[in-house]
Amino acid sequence: MAKQEDQFKKVLSHAKEYGYVFQSSEIYDGLSAVYDYAQNGVELKKNIRDYWWKAMVQMHENIVGIDASILMHPTTWKASGHVDAFNDPLIDNKDSKKRYRADVLVEDYREKINEKIQKDITKAKKRFGEAFNEDEFRSTNPNVLRRQKQIDEITAELTRVQEENDLEGFRNLIIDLGITCPVSGSKNWTEVKQFNLMFGTQLGASADSSTQVYLRPETAQGIFVNFLNVQKTGRMKIPFGIAQTGKAFRNEIVARQFIFRQREFEQMEMQFFVKPGTQKEWYEKWKETRLKWHMSLGIGKENYRFHDHDKLAHYADAAADIEFKFPFGFKELEGIHSRTDFDLSQHEKFSGKKLQYFDHEDNTSYVPYVIETSIGLDRMFLAVFSNSLQEEELENGSTRTVLKLPAVLAPTKAAILPLVKKDGLPEIARKIVDDLKWDFNVVYDEKDAVGRRYRRQDAVGTPFCITVDHDTLEDNTVTIRHRDTMEQKRVKIKELSNIIKQEVDVRSWLQKMEA
Ligand code: GAP
């Protein structure tokens, strides 16, 4: 646990020190759970967004994008169910005065039991080696069976209290499990209350004539209300999808864990409209496709897992999360939801306008069903960033900090370094920058000894360093150094563009999805 916390602290300080993420309004001591992306962070974020957009929109003939407004007609949120049901159950500890999400307290408790099971499995694996059979161990080991039973009972009760909105039952569950406040260590809990997460604001100049509106808590509704506009103007045939990326706002109760849970964040969502009855098959297809997208970045299969929802949201008939192993454990990174015809039907009802699709093949009209894929851009940023941050022991006994970002996502693809600030080397380096910058984000750096410059670029995550030295003057060659292997090669200046392209080109990364 302490190791996890250490790693998380390193992530936070590295993100600040190397210009990735700053606390918002830091000079005023910051605003809780609101962050700013700095000069490198904004590039990484853009590259993740572009990588998603390429895979989800531009690589699919039947998926198009939109950019809807953050402010929407207030009835949207009545229809979607957010005004009445977008709540989190909260509970306060009377001694520490800290506020928690009741469901998160129970889920964290359950996860700790799960971690104990995992530990037993790891130990047994070591002991039995090749002969180890995990399924058999899980179904026969008394400790694992007892713990699994406990997990199942907690899950069943958690689902029940959530589905029945049994707030007293929720509190009893926390008390019965003996859950203590992480700050005060006490079990002195208040009642559980529901808290609506939407930020409200006023539209209009005067208090009398103003209308209550909301900052959107998800981007999805901007897609639903535009469903027919896009379908008609784009002559889209079912099945088809509409995607968008953009800001969403939630007044989160528990707003810790850096950019993992923010009050202002960005989503990348795609709603895929299908014929009723085919939703199950499309749901499975999108689960598979989305996992492949993650795998294409090479972050490691062991860092991902699916979690099927025990409690379905009011709009869903199936839902799963793709969870990622963040520095604080496995947590939701992306949701894949089979949303039925709930949203479109609700908007039909509240707007009085038909939102139906006429199927020329069957000569029938229907409200399509929807499969949604929804990923938080900031969470993806944290997943990539935290996984890439590594400390390596080098052969000479020293250590180096290196940010091994997938090259396709790295903010800067190459740093061009004149060995010295004289003898015409800066001029050649500048010429290389001027040529490469048409295709790649590159930087020029002449400050400090070249070894220090390499370390700085390693820590920022730049895949290539290109050094111009006195031999360059003779033969037009430079040294290209690879961030991950630290291997150095002598190459012709005119070959640089191709070498960089091979490693950072979106095509070669996304093609891994097809493998
Ligand atoms: N349209 C469906 C929807 O919004 P969600 O599970 O509430 O579903 C989707 O959110 C994704 O948005 C999550 O998987 C997560 O990555 C991201 N997300 C949600 N709340 C967030 C927050 N407070 N801060 C950062 N990301 C968040």
TrEMBL record:
The terms describing its cellular component in GO are: cytoplasm; extracellular exosome; microvesicle
Q: Which reactions is this enzyme annotated as catalysing? A: tRNA(Gly) + glycine + ATP = glycyl-tRNA(Gly) + AMP + diphosphate
Record bears the keyword Aminoacyl-tRNA synthetase: yes
- Residue ranges of every copy of the Aminoacyl-transfer RNA synthetases class-II family profile domain listed in the record: 153-418
UniProt KW keywords: Aminoacyl-tRNA synthetase, ATP-binding, Cytoplasm, Ligase, Nucleotide-binding, Protein biosynthesis
Chief subcellular location equals cytoplasm
Q: Which residues bind ATP?
A: 250-252, 260-265, 332-333, 376-379
A Pfam family of this chain: HGTP_anticodon
SUPFAM superfamilies for the chain? Class II aaRS ABD-related, Class II aaRS and biotin synthetases
This protein is called Glycine--tRNA ligase
Supply the source organism for this entry. Answer: Tenacibaculum gallaicum
